[in-house]
Amino acid sequence: MLTISSMKSLIAPPFAHTPFSLYLTKASPFASKSIFCNPTTLQTLRFIHTKSEPPMASPKFPLFSVQNRSLQTKASNSSASGEVHVIVGPMFAGKTTTLLRRIQAETEKGRLARVRISCHLDKTLKGLCFSGRLSEAIGLLWRTGVKVEPGTYSLLLQECIFMKEYRKGRRIHAQMVIVGYVPNEYLENKLLILYAKSGNLVTAHVLFDKLQEKSLISWNSMITGLHCLTLSAVGKYREYGGLLYRSVAVIKSNKDTRFGLDSIVTHDGVKLPCCALANLSSFRQKFGSDAYDKLDVIGIDEAQFFEDLYDFCSEAADHDGKTVIVAGLDGDYLRRSFGSVLDIIPLADSVTKLTARCEFCGKRAFFTLRKTKETQTELIGGSDIYMPVCRQHYVSGHVVVEAARIVLGSQKSQCESCAV
Length: 420
Ligand SMILES: Nc1ncnc2c1ncn2[C@@H]1O[C@H](COP(=O)(O)OP(=O)(O)O)[C@@H](O)[C@H]1O
Ligand SMILES: Cc1cn([C@H]2C[C@H](O)[C@@H](COP(=O)(O)O)O2)c(=O)[nH]c1=O
Description:
The protein is α/β, with parallel strands linked by helices.
């Protein structure tokens, strides 16, 4: 039998760099920072808003965080510096909002690193863009008449696409042509999306034909034309030299059809394009293996609906080095464990349990009450079917709903026997 010390030396032989070693985890943005408290994060979230969305309301609920473990085992794969962060709570607690903010914070990490080394004009243009002054940024780009970094062009185009400012996007393209800037494949894809979304399918087609390598995204933009992209890589900047953001993809369950399948949407109407899937195991193949390899961060919303959550998270974090941020319901309307969300707690670097406001008394709400008589576990819906409640009102509310269910059930069977 192996002794503890011989096992230790197998795991971490002294004075040697081995495939397996214990090390202190790197500082995590989730370790102690409450992103709810950072108004600048909210401002920069504009980048992922659509034009018609209301500004994000300040959260009415506290954030509780079970902080991350300090030790991690490093797997043999040298890129295995992944992380898993889990956000749970009842409906309306701000899980999706928190997911979006954390994703934004993750992308910002790359951006901040880049901004430090970017030249003054690029910096100014990005600053204008992030503060919502897109027109001024494009005006400045034109006035200076110089080529800027791919990352800057990309950000400006991205903003035009999100804001549906297609005319402005065309001005950026025109500036590229005038200053003799040859867009890389990534920017060509961006331009393709811009033209396809603006309805200019002729130009989109020309760009599409020019593309050396037709990715899932370019095919998608072409096929869907005016419609939104079903699959979206919010990033890939790293691949194309901009190094502006870390590369991020967001997945949600295709069971959640409440706001369509192309975005995750918070109860306040804030959106982020996503990839809707039946199961997580299909993600790599659908997203494309190369694109997957370049991803830094994967966000998963409505995690309770994914049966293969555990396998996906462990593979992505342990072997593929991804930062996985998972948001989902820990409990169903009967307060039973929902799907596999609780199964991934042992995999997690951090767990954040959020609360909403009880709709009866305004106290902290830990549970979700179903107001209707349906009894199946999975029932898609919003405030028409569910409400967040405190313990006291869960118990009393549940009794009322159960009683109504029994009364309605017996009335139904009476009617049926009358009809016979
Ligand atoms: N009873 C409630 N308690 C807290 N927030 C609520 C409530 N009803 C509606 N909301 C809104 O829902 C938002 C949270 O939405 P979202 O992030 O989509 O939550 P979740 O993903 O947890 O269901 C809050 O910012 C708030 O504006
Ligand atoms: C409690 C409970 C919820 N659901 C469904 C209802 C919604 O479609 C989602 C949760 O959405 P949110 O982003 O957390 O607001 O889950 C369900 O199917 N069964 C339940 O018991």
